[in-house]
Structure formats: structure tokens, C-alpha cells
Amino acid sequence: MQELKHRLAEARKQAGLTQNQVAEALNISTQSVSAWECGNSMPDIEKLPELAALYQRTTDWLLTGKGPSEDLRNVTRDLRARLFREEHMGTYLSAFCTAKKLHNTRRALDYARRMHEGQFRKSSDGEGPVPYIYHPMLMTCHALALGLEEDDLLSACLLHDVCEDCAVSPDELPANEAVREAVRLLTKPKHFDGSAEAQRAYYAAIAENRIAAMVKLLDRCNNVSGMASGFRVQKIAEYIQETLDYVYPLMDRTRHAFPEYADALFLIRYHMRSVIETARHLLRAAL
Hints:
This protein is an all-alpha fold. The protein folds into two domains: about 1-75, lambda repressor-like DNA-binding domains (434 Repressor (Amino-terminal Domain), Orthogonal Bundle); about 80-285, Orthogonal Bundle (Hypothetical protein af1432), CATH 1.10.3210.10. It is built from 16 helices and two strands. Strands 1-2 form a two-stranded antiparallel sheet. Strand 1 (about 120) and strand 2 form a beta hairpin. The longest helix is centred in the last third of the chain and has 25 residues, at about 235-255. The radius of gyration is 21 Å and the shape is globular.
């Protein structure tokens, strides 16, 4: 069986990262990473989860070369375990931005983490409040999983709620004008009353901007996926109806207006419709 130093070097190379990129992501020296891979020292215990997330491996594999135990697999099957934790996603996104030279996204990540610090989302599944940064980070990871690696799009994913939740204007964002405009369109104005007329105008404006449209669809897909653990029954019903009335038409318009996103939209559409139809069926059965 391979020694730890060999597993660390293999995992890094398979992740497509240099020793310098690993060092930057973990806020350590390049010499430390080199020493691990030469067998001259071992990672500190608190660095192992970050390394595992960065290399997309398990800590079990890093330490022993063996796959996860059945107990671990059972835990990760449970959505409430929140497999994708903030610190893991932050490490992954930081390393990805470094490797791909996504300087705007990296700047947006640091800003979003700072602005959302101390903010939490409610959870009704007994786990307690969830740090708000979890949401934009998960959206950004979702975009990357769909092959969407545009600097502006990823930046807008991370910043899309900052203006609405942190009382800053789009002009204050550390971003270029394309990202600021997308966030401006996504931010509901203070006078927004939730009426059908206001909703139609809001979604019509978003549909004209490719970045705003894709971020809105990723946002809704993320929220739909987690509504069972965060929404009460009445809120789920209202959210489904809003999705049917406004988000589905936005999805259709985006597919026709921006065909470059056809593959990603196919997967978003498939996932969102599957969750929505399952939820509608369960709601009808409960009434």
C-alpha cells in the first residue's frame, strides 16, 4: 500500500494542482506541502479535512489508503449532514480560482464571506441555523459542476444576495460593470410588493441579461432542492406556484436566447422539475 507522502502527491496531481496552489488555498508555505510529499513531515490534524475537500478525497483515504466505511457512506446519504460544508467549499473555490486564474471570482468570494459573516438561514430540520454564505457558495459549486466556469457568472453567483441582505449598492461591489448590472437586476427594490405585475416586470428584466438569468435559475434550483428542510408547508406551496408562474418561463426564454447554456439548462430543468413534481404530488396527498 502507498505511503502517506505518495498518496498526497498523487491526489494533488490528479486534482490538477501545483504545490504552490495547494499552499495558497490552505494558507501555508509551499515548503510545507513539499515536506509532506517528501515524507519529512505530516499535515496537522486540522488541515486534513481541508486537504480532503481540496483533493476531493476522504480523510480515511488520505490517512490509510482505504475507502470510506459504511458508517461514513450512511452519513453522507443524509442531506441533513450537510456534506458540503462552508469551510470545504471555501477551500475548493479558492483553489479553483487560483488554478483557473479567476481573479474576479476570488475577489467576490472574499467579499461575500466578509459581508455575510454573522448571517444565518433558518432551518426547520432540527440542525439549527445555517451560515448564509453556504447558499452562494453552493450555487457557485453547482455552476462549476455544470461546466460553467465564466469569471463574471461565478462572481455574480457569490454576490447575488449581498445588496439585498447587506445594505450595499451594486456600485459598491468589487466587480466589473457586467457583474454589477446582473446583481442590480437580481436585487428586488425596496418598493417591491410581490404583486403579479411586479413579479412579471422583475423576471422580464432578468430575462434580458444572460448572467442574471443563469444566476436566478441556479438560485431557484438551489432553493427548490433545499425547501423541504427550510420551508414550512404553506411556504413550499407558494414557492412552487411562483416557480411555475415565473421561473419556468424564464428557463424557456433563457434556453432560446442564450443557446450556449443549453447543456447546463437541460440539467437544471431536469433537476428542478423532478423536485417540483415530487413536492406537488406529496402536497396533494397531504391535503
